[in-house]
Structures are given as structure tokens and as C-alpha cells.
Amino acid sequence: MEVALAAVAGRWTTLLLRDLMHGPRSYHQLRDGLPSLSDKVLADRLRQLVAQGLVDRQQQRGFPNRSLYSLTAAGEHIRPLLIELYRTGQRLQQSQ
């Protein structure tokens, strides 16, 4: 359980994983989807998720260079956890 919680720990991590659950996204698509997230934090979180093996980063050719991020097989294993966290949050919010 601790390993799973550590994988989604950190501010913005669950939201980035949520966005990637809908398919590959470019850096700019991720940034546009979370406008309150600074570039520094976005880059740090993505670097962390790639290092953990949860997210894959592919460099696309062209000018300027673009990166495309997607969930790895390990990242896909987190999908049920994220869905349940969302459902739990909704239930907790309704009970307040």
C-alpha cells in the first residue's frame, strides 16, 4: 500500500496522471489543462513520474522539439487507484 501511495504522492501528481489516463499529451496540453501549475513544478513532476517508470516521454521531431507523455504499463496499473480516490473524494465531499 505504501508503494502505491508514494507513487501518487505530491501536489499535482494525481491530476497529471488523471490527464494522462485519457491518452498521450504534449507538455503544452498538460500545461494548458492545469493553468495554475507552474512550468517548474510541471517539469519536476513529469521528470519524477518518468524516473518512477509510470510515464513515458517520447521526443518528437520538428521545430521546436516537442515531448509527448503517456502512461506506461506500470502507470496503467495506477488507473483503478486514481478512480477509487476520485470516488472516495466525492463521497467525502457529499457527507460534509
Describe the structure concisely.
This protein is α+β, with helices and mostly antiparallel strands. It has six helices and three strands; from the N terminus they run ααβααββαα.
Secondary structure elements and their pairing?
Layout: H1 2-7, H2 13-20, E1 25-26, H3 27-33, H4 39-51, E2 55-60, E3 66-71, H5 73-76, H6 79-94
Antiparallel strand pairs: 1-3, 2-3
Folded structure, characterized:
The structure is a single chain. The protein has 96 residues and is α+β, with helices and mostly antiparallel strands. It has one domain (2-94): Orthogonal Bundle (Arc Repressor Mutant, subunit A), CATH 1.10.10. 56% of the residues lie in helices and 15% in strands. The chain has six helices and three strands; from the N terminus they run ααβααββαα. The chain has helices at residues 2-7, 13-20, 27-33, 39-51, 73-76, 79-94; strands spanning 25-26, 55-60, 66-71. The chain has a three-stranded antiparallel beta sheet. It is globular, with a radius of gyration of 14 Å. The relative contact order is 0.17.
- Beta-strand percentage range: 5-15%
Order of helices and strands: HHEHHEEHH
Number of domains: 1
The average pLDDT score comes to 91
What is the CATH fold-level name?
A: Arc Repressor Mutant, subunit A
Spatial strand order of the main sheet: 1-3-2
Keywords:
single chain; 96 residues; alpha+beta; Arc Repressor Mutant, subunit A; three-stranded antiparallel sheet; 6 helices
